[in-house]
Amino acid sequence: xxxxxxxxxxxxxxxxxxxxxxxxxxxxxxxxxxxxxxxxxxxxxxxxxxxxxxxxxxxxxxxxxxxxxxxxxxxxxxxxxxxxxxxxxxxxxxxxxxxxxxxxxxxxxxxxxxxxxxxxxxxxxxxxxxxxxxxxxxxxxxxxxxxxxxxxxxxxxxxxxxxxxxxxxxxxxxxxxxxxxxxxxxxxxxxxxxxxxxxxxxxxxxxxxxxxxxxxxxxxxxxxxxxxxxxxxxxxxxxxxxxxxxxxxxxxxxxxxxxxxxxxxxxxxxxxxxxxxxxxxxxxxxxxxxxxxxxxxxxxxxxxxxxxxxxxxxxxxxxxxxxxxxxxxxxxxxxxxxxxxxxxxxxxxxxxxxxxxxxxxxxxxxxxxxxxxxxxxxxxxxxxxxxxxxxxxxxxxxxxxxxxxxxxxxxxxxxxxxxxxxxxxxxxxxxxxxxxxxxxxxxxxxxxxxxxxxxxxxxxxxxxxxxxxxxxxxxxxxxxxxxxxxxxxxxxxxxxxxxxxxxxxxxxxxxxxxxxxxxxxxxxxxxxxxxxxxxxxxxxxxxxxxxxxxxxxxxxxxxxxxxxxxxxxxxxxxxxxxxxxxxxxxxxxxxxxxxxxxxxxxxxxxxxxxxxxxxxxxxxxxxxxxxxxxxxxxxxxxxxxxxxxxxxxxxxxxxxxxxxxxxxxxxxxxxxxxxxxxxxxxxxxxxxxxxxxxxxxxxxxxxxxxxxxxxxxxxxxxxxxxxxxxxxxxxxxxxxxxxxxxxxxxxxxxxxxxxxxxxxxxxxxx
Length: 766
Description:
By secondary structure, the chain is α+β, with helices and mostly antiparallel strands. A hairpin with a 2-residue loop joins strand 4 (238-243) and strand 5 (246-251).
């Protein structure tokens, strides 16, 4: 919940002080009546503040707000540094820019909104009047910004759904199950370990791969697996190796293990984000980690906020837009990795001018559907009772809390995987036959699934997954650091019966074969003879010794430089010093936890409260009745007054614009006599009307021999014996009311009449 501060009140006062003379005095006369000279701006502002402190005035100001206006105010409250352009993007296509432009102007005039500058005093944005915030804020809830529908039946979980035209009925089919399961990911790990040549250098499947996936994944399309593989490549979960013309993508076991320590929601968020960040043809492996983590946090925050009843297609896009805005800008410093990636993309994208690093709302929404994070359903439209509008809910298989069985990691240590409860959950989860075939009978934690997949070859991934323990798979596992004892222990923890004896013998024979010759790559520690005992008995360092090459020369199993430095530091062995000749290259990707403390989280604080709030403004009928009664009452008061026609017209306009909250404002001295219409031969009068309309950004109505037109006057071009008006169309839908719309030139001398259509007492607005 947003609260007003003294600084906010000072900003509002500064806004009033900085207004141009026309706007400032127009606003003061509107609420305070005639301004007598000499005047003091600060005293006038104090008087306006007193006007807002009166409970009755505040009550009327708030009661006159329509539902649409409350929606706009809600956008201002929750979109950081909200401009008319941001509001137009948020509400598209519900509100046109023309509507929003007039609404913002009117809400300023009614003292609801005001304009302020950012910390650098450069960008201008809208904020809610701090003197009214406590009255307005309770009226803003998720039902205003995200009208929710209730799912009735299942429809296609189609990634293209977000691009489907409004009113188009989606096909009625059952949603596909959650494809980012541990079973699928582990199966794909095993498949790619056995077939590292499954892709071309650009990451696309080879012809033979399509045939193989059809056999191994009979229930999953090759297209879906291709897209999943693309995302995993972008997560740097594979090592790219070049052998002549052959390109191999081998699973990086260490990175996969790091990935398994994330909760399922975080993993799915990373995959969806990685899929959107780059195109497979331009950057088949790796993306800048800042962009990746930011996009993943965006996905995670979005999924945590979707209510159980779901969101419509349009509202889902709104929420994504809001969260992306709340994340703010993040550093765009171009490091070496980013530069190389950009250059590679430019070389392979046929001169595309668009950045591949940009995550669009549409692409991200489509990815959420594609990977099963969102599921589609349909709801009957209340108006017609026939057409169906899609509603999207979060897949129930996603865990918003850390999962059991050691799938989550805390402080770098396994927490519950070694507990008795975890052991019981893992028991009887696989069946192993005499031919070394393994059938996984139930869903396992991904960390366990990957350990199992690392020493097996995939047979089939369908309703259940089946693998086979083979010599080649075990040799790969041994190369990754596995031992026969570890594989045996894993199988015993998960098997439903005793392990076949021939399997145990085979594991030892294969390891003996593997150990007969070794090629090492890793961290080598060399110490003097008198320091050997300190290293070999050190509780921090000794567990990392994998092999002793010779006395005082050790191979260590650190995953990366960070782990090496941290372990050396903990060991207390200062004589070791720093890393000598470290390998150059790209630092391995770390997978940051995606919770509210994440570095790029825009914070769901405030938004979760927003979705939890119930409406306190549900009786819109009564509000409309109050508004209608108030306007008619003010009109009646105005009719009783003996005023010139021009003044009555101006006061009536103010009533209809809801700027008259009290009959005391219906004063003749609050309206300056001003020419708003000129006719025929009154050339100078027509010029004066047009100049005033330009200054106030008001519409004008021009009657000539060719008919009557309305629009925004842009400028007056002088010519011999005449003047020409450049008139912009009043059909304003673009962000700039002076650009992007059709214009025409009209002779002022030949105009029969020119009428200024007053809109606001404020001066020119930006």
